[in-house]
Design a protein that fits this description.
This protein is of the alpha+beta class and 151 residues long. Helix content is 19%, strand content 49%.
Length: 151
């Protein structure tokens, strides 16, 4: 009986966290941030900005996965396959993964990829998420707004 109480308490805490998540996050699509990246062209000249999209997907049990890819409908078709629940595990090498923590409208998570770790914190604003990020890979800090896009 002494062992069962902590297990029940931990299970209840997990369920409460999932309920908090379920009240704010949508699972029927992805959150997308579109950005123009300036790439180095041959000869050292900067080329025109190329559009890249950063995609975040949340799952009901708190898993978060992310990938950076091209923007547009064609890319969304591929990303939908990549973001299927079976790919959220550690065997799919192209995705960054982490666990979400939510308190009210505030959220935090850290995503680990083969390159390293990036930490995120932010808040929900309607169907958008405003995030600050810090790369533990190169020290880069950023702010971005991710808009929800249904499948």
């Amino acid at each position: 009986m002494k062992f069962m109480c902590p297990v029940l308490f931990a299970t209840a805490a997990l369920l409460l966290n999932v309920e908090a998540i379920a009240g704010t996050i949508r699972y029927d699509g992805v959150y997308v941030h579109q950005d123009s990246l300036t790439e180095q062209a041959e000869g050292g000249n900067e080329s025109e900005g190329k559009q890249h999209c950063y995609y975040l997907r949340f799952y009901p049990k708190g898993t978060v996965i992310s990938v950076t890819s091209d923007c547009g409908e064609k890319a969304m078709g591929s990303i939908k396959k990549w973001f299927e629940a079976r790919n959220a595990g550690p065997t799919h090498t192209g995705l960054a993964r982490g666990m979400l923590r939510v308190k009210g409208k505030q959220l935090k998570f850290a995503l680990r990829s083969k390159e390293g770790l990036v930490s995120y914190s932010g808040k929900f604003v309607g169907e958008r998420i405003e995030l600050k990020s810090h790369s533990h890979i190169n020290g880069f800090n950023d702010k971005a707004t991710y808009a929800f896009t249904p499948w």
